[in-house]
Structures are given as C-alpha cells and as structure tokens.
Amino acid sequence: MPTRLASCSCGQLTARVTGDPVRIPICHCLACQRRTGGPFAEQARFLQTDVTVAGQSTSYIRTGDGGTSARFHFCPICGVTVYYTPTEAATWIAIPVGAFADPAFPAPTVSVYEGRMHSWVVPPAGAEHFP
After folding, report:
1. Are 66 and 87 in contact (CB under 8 A)?
2. What value does the mean pLDDT take over residues 14-40?
3. Which domains does the chain have, with CATH numbers?
C-alpha cells in the first residue's frame, strides 16, 4: 500500500496519505482556474481515514461553478493549499496533486467542466469526460 506526502512550499503543513486515491479529477471551472492560477485544477480524493494532516492551516470556504462548496486549507506562512474538504461529503479529503510534487503520480481519471476548458488542454484519453 503506497504512502505519499503532500506538503506546502515551506513544509509547515503536510498531509500523509496511505493507499491509492479514490478518484483523480481535473476541473476546468472558472473558480478552480482562479484558485490555482492555472488552466485547470487537479486533485486526488482519498478517504479521510487514510489521511493524516500535520501543521497549522488557515481555511476558506469557496463555492464552485456548480453551487457546491468546499473548505480549502492552506498554509498561513506560504499560502499553498494542501487539502480541502467538500461541505456536503465528509468522508473524503481532496489534495491538489501538485502538493505531492511527484511526477509519477497517476494520471487524471475524470475531466469536468470541459465547456470551460482551454482550447489547448487535452485530458487523458481514458478519462471520463463531463461538459
């Protein structure tokens, strides 16, 4: 069973994960583009029981394009988001894939809000696609 460590830039806030992700989506919604500063957000979802968080975080509740909200936890020192929890699904934690800093991390399995996707982005062929 793999163990992975996600971290902020300064290393103060971490999330240690045991096991594989339940789902790895990329989201092209405008709220995710603004949050990440990139053309999409990629996160890995894990069962809460498989994640151990250490360090201090500041949180922010953000409502996405579809009307659902999530509580984002970021480092109060360097500002990097290390994990977030959806307000309506308390059984899992989402961790931005970039926080793992692992080029061998598995590819996305789902692509959502493709109607807002940048024209040059090409999701993996085997991923589920949602407009």
Report:
1. no
2. 95
3. 3-118 (2.170.150.70)
